[in-house]
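Why do we care about 3D structure at all? Because function follows from shape, and shape follows, mostly, from sequence. That is the central idea of this module. The next example makes it concrete: a single protein chain, its amino acid sequence, and then its structure expressed as C-alpha cells.
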Amino acid sequence: MRRLLLALPFALLPLAVAHAAEEHDHEHGSLGAHEHGVGRLNAALDGQTLQLELESPAMNLVGFEHAAASDADKAKVAAVRAQLEKPQALFNLPKAAGCVVEKQELESPLFGDKPDADEDHDEGEHHHDHSEIHAHYQFTCATPDALKTLDLANIFTRFPATQKIQVQLIGPSGQQGVDVTAKAAALKF
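And the structure:
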C-alpha cells in the first residue's frame, strides 16, 4: 500500500502538467500558436478564387506588440498597414494570372480593433501583450492556371523578423503543409 501511495503523485504528474498548460492557454489566449519569428498562411485556390489568410505576431511585422503610443510607433504601424494593403506586391502573384483583389480585411489590436471575446482579460489580471496581425485576401484570377507557384520572398524581405511561415495550401494538386523560409520562399500550387 505504501508503494502505491508513493507512486501516485508520479502517476498523476502528466495530468497536472496538462491541466496547468490548459489553464495557461486559457488565461493567455492560447499562446501555443503565438511564436515570435513564425507566421502562418492559409492559401486556397478554388477555380478562379484565391484566398490567402496571413496571421503573424505583431512583433514579426511591426517590431513590437504594445499599443502604439509614440509618433515613431504610430508611423511604423501605419507603414506596415500600408504594405499589407498591397497584397499583389506582398505575395508576388504572376501578372499572367490576372489576379484582382475582390476583398481584403486587416485586423489587429494595433490597428484599433478590439480583441476577440476569448482574449479578453479581467481587470487586474496579470497578462502579457501578445498582439497578432491577421490579413485576409480574396482574389479573382482570370487565368488561375498561370498560378504555378506562390512566392513569399517579399514577406521575408519587407518583414525581416519573420523567420518562418507555416503554410497550409490547398490547390489543384491537393493539400500540402510546408514551412517556408527566406532561403526557400516559393511553393508550388
